[in-house]
Amino acid sequence: MFTVDRNGQNHVSNLARAAQPSEHVYTNTELERSGPNGVTVILLDSLNTKWTDQSRAAQTVVRFLSQIRPEDHIAIYSIGLRGFRVLHDFTTDASDLVARRSTWNGEIPRVKSPDLGDQLAGVLAGNDRGERLNQRRAPQAETDVSGATLTTLNMMESLAARLAGIPGRKNVIWISDGFPLLSWGYLDRVVFSPTLIRPVDLKGEDPSEAFQREGDRTMHLLDGANVAVYPVEARGMLMYWDKPRGPGAPTMATTVETAHDEATEQTMEEIARRTGGRAFVRTNDIFGAIRAAVDDSRLTYTLGFYPDSRFDGKFHPIAIKLAGRSGVTLRYRSGYIDEQDVPSSPENRKTELEEASLSPLDANAIPITARLESSANKGTYRLSLAIGISNLNLRQESGNWAGDIDVMLVQRGGRGREFGRVNDTISLHLRPETYERVVKTGVPYEREFALNPHANVVRVVVRDPAAGNLGSVTIPAADLQP
Description:
- By secondary structure, the chain is of the alpha+beta class.
- It folds into two domains: 266 residues, 3-Layer(aba) Sandwich (Rossmann fold); 133 residues, Interleukin-17 receptor A/B, fibronectin-III-like domain 2 (Immunoglobulin-like).
- Helix content is 28%, strand content 26%.
- It is built from eleven helices and 18 strands.
- The strands form five sheets. The chain has a five-stranded mixed sheet, sandwiched between helices. Strands 13, 14, 15, 17 and 18 form a five-stranded antiparallel sheet that branches.
- β6, α7 and β7 form a beta-alpha-beta unit.
- The longest helix has 21 residues.
- The N and C termini lie far apart (53 Å).
């Protein structure tokens, strides 16, 4: 299979229909309907980036957005201590993107920085420039970065789930100082909000191995959603200064600082290689890096094949060569793990739904249109879902299509507190004629529930337990108040 994915081709969902005046309608298919093949997300990272680098990167992003081209379909997201924010979803309106970017002011990362009073005293005392530079950069190698790293991986998984329903290649420009592979730390010392991080049970294994497992999971989900990551090092060219070792001896960086920076750049290179992107490290041209990554989304190709061996559980590298052409660089994922979709256990199904309900972004691998109407009893609502089946892993049984869909309805308040939950499973046994109809209309589901007065949002999550694909919609409780 070989297809060309040109920027500008639209995919239209069949699930939406006109709403009645009494209905509240919510869907996770807006991106699916409006997104062309080949889109770009600019991901501003204040979780792993020093304050000075955040400011420099933000100024460059504004300068880039002011001259985007009509064919550029760009979104701006951010990750930080306050979670995942959608500053603006995909658009070609440069003025609107710039206005929304201005709502992001960054934040000071939690790092072990030198005492500010000591720094000021050193500057006033006329210490050498190298000492001041090294202090300004802050010794992040001394920082326990396990919490920030796990949060970053978890947010990238949420991003993959959000983009999975958009056809074609998705380029994510991750502007960050990054995190090092050599400073993973102990995962059980995470201090960030539990609503942002998936709980990790070490079970006695080496922390670095547990971290590698989490990283592999994230890369697998990004690959499955056809997301290519383009890391851009926000700090630019690195300069190391140290006191001379003797008369005439050259200045050189400290060993810890050098190892930290090299490890961080290796992480960026590895993420880009695994997902088919490109890393931009040790460059002061953030503008040019963003432009190059956006240009990569303008015209992409989809290549498919059927492997001889199936489901051996091994990693299979992919190599693509362009015959008769020289000087051409091909960007694609480095390989795939040939695993068969195995239905989750009941315990894992519950856990995976719970994780999805806490995700900061809605997932759209499974399209959902949710409709709410007030019921006769005050504060009670009737929820009607139309669930798309295009990404469900259905099996044939006696000529019918069979499978399950897990449904969770959960009400949450501040700090992720839960105020009510409903769990259901829809068992499908579709005759061929019913299957053809459901492909167009979606699988119907209805449920009545009472809205808790302390809830801020109602989260609807559906999941295919066979393949693990997700769909979710978030309903603000304020919309339901009379």
